[in-house]
Amino acid sequence: MKSSSERRNPEQRNPEQRNPDLAPTGGQATPLSALQQALGSTIEPAIETVPGLSPKGLSKKPKRASQQTERFTNNRWARLAFPSMTDLLFVASMAWMFMSSGKRGWQSLLADGDVGWHIRVGEYIWQHAQVPQHDLFSFSKPGAAWFAWEWLADLIDAGLHHAGGLKGIVLAAGVIIALFGITVLRRMVLAGAHSFVALLVMLLGTGAASIHFLARPHIYTLLFLSLSMGILEADRRQQTLRVWWLIPLTLLWTNLHGGFLVLILALGVAAVGALVEALLRLDKLSAFDWNDLLWTRTKRYTLLTLGCAAVSLANPYGWGLHKHVVEYLRSDWIRNIVQEFQSPSFRGESMMQFEGLLFVALIAVGTLLRRRQIVEALWILTFSYLSLSSARHVPVFVAAVSPLIALELSACWQQISGAVSKKSILGILNQVAADIEPGFRRSSLVPVLFVAALAVIGSPTPWPKDFPSEVFPTEMVHAHEAQILQARLLTTDQWADYLIYLHPEQKVFVDGRSDFYGPEIGNQFLHVINGAPDWPQVMQKFEFNLALVPVDCALSQLLKQTAEWKVLADDGKRILFEKKGSKVAAEVVLKAKAI
pLDDT (tens digit, 9 = 90+) per residue, 329-346? Predict the structure, then answer.
C-alpha cells in the first residue's frame, strides 16, 4: 500500500522505474568479477521497496548506453582487464595520500608508535599459539592482567612484518584506507547520488578522516563499518538474505578491533527507527499491512542486533571484552589525557572539511524526518553526537553517513540544474556525470595488479625502514642502544612503543596502552614528566637511572639543574640524561674495555 506522498507524485516512487535500462533485472545480476564481489556486491543497488526512501530530485540517468558500451560491460574478460573509474580512483587515492610526498607519505602511517607493540604481540601469539592474558612489556605492572583485544590484527601485523618489514605494514594499511574511501564512494553512487557530488563528498570525507589514517587496528573498523552500512543501506532499499552476512562479519571484526560495537549500535538504532516508522504509518495502513511492516522490519533489525551481539562473545575474553571496551571509552581519565578522545577542534583543514559535512548532515535530518525516514535520521544524529564528543569518531561519522550527505547535496544540485538546457554548462556536467556513473559500479584486476607491483618493487619507492625520525628519537636510541637496554629508563609512552618494537625484551615504565596502565601508573608518569612537586619521589620509587624525554618538557629543565643527573645527548628536540654513578654507566664501560 503506497503512502500519500507516493500517490501524489508517482514520478518519485522509484527512479529506476523511469529508466528501465538501469533498473535491476528481476534478481538476475550481470556476472561480476571476484574482486567486484569482494568490494561492491554487498552493496549493489536494488529496487526501492520502502516508502519514502527513494531520494527526491536526483539527476536522471541516460536512457540507453551505446551498443559498444553494452557489449563491453557484458564481456567478463574485458571488464576484468579494463580499469573502471573505481579502479582509477583507488590508484589515485594511494598515489595522492602515500606516494606524492616522497618518504613522508608512507612514514606518516607510522606516526603513532602503537604499531610497534602490536607487531610484537602478534609475534608472541605466533610463537606461543595463544593470546596473552597478562602484560608482556612493563616493569611498572609486571604480569598484571591485560586485554590483548586486537589480537587478530596483531597477528596479521606480525605476519606482514615478517614478510616485508615495515613496508608490509604500511602497504597493507594504505590498501585498507584506500578501500575505505572507495567503498564509501560506491555506496553513494549505488544510492543514486550524482557522480560529481559523490566525488566531492568522498574527497571531503577522506580529508576529514585523514586525522586517523595510521597503521593501527582501527583502520579495520573504518573499512568494516563502511561495508556494513552499505549492506544495511541496500537492505533498506530491498530486503535480501545478504544482510545476515553482518553476523559472521561481526565475528571477524570483534577479534580485529573493539570498534565492532559501533555496528551493534547502528543495528539497534535501525530497529528503533523501524518501529517508529511503523507507528507513524499506523493510521494509513490496514491491520495486516501494518503488522507485516512492523514485524518484517523491526523484528528483522532486532534479530540482527541480537545475533551480532551474540557472536561478538566469541573472543578470547568473552563478555569481559565488552565490559572493558565500554569502560575504556567512558573513562574520564583517558578522555582528559588522550587528545584523540577529546572533542574536535575546528581549526585545521581536516576539521573544517568535517565541519562542512556535519552541517549538511544535520540539515538532511529535517528532510529525512519529513519523508519519515526515521532510521536514516537517527543514524545521522547518533554518529554526529559520537563525532562531536570525540575526534577519533570523525572517521566513523564519515564512514556511516556520507551517502546520506551525498543524496541531500544531489537533490539540491538537481533543483538548480534540473530545468537547464542540455547544452548549458550544467547540462553538460549532468551528462558527463551520467556517462561516467556506470564506471563506479564495477571493478577490474587493475587495483590487484597495482598493489602487487608495489609489493615487489623496492627502490626508488622510499619504503620506510625505521620509524619517522621527526617523531621518534631513532638516531639517539641507536647510538645509545646498549645503555638503554640495560637501564631503568624513563621515556614517553610513544617512544616506549618504539623501544618495544626494537627490542621486545625491553621493559618500559609506560607505553601506548593507556587502558592497561590507567590512572594508577598514568598519573605518576604525568607527574614526573610535567615536573609536579612529587617528581623526585616517583623517580626514586621506580629507580630510574636513564631518562629520554622531549627537550621542552618540564622534567628536562629540572634534570639539567639537578647535580646527580648529566646530559648524554641532545639533538635540540630530544635529550638523554644519565644518573651519575649508576650501574648502567659502569657496566657499559667494563664491556667496552673487554671488547
Answer: 888 888 888 888 888 888
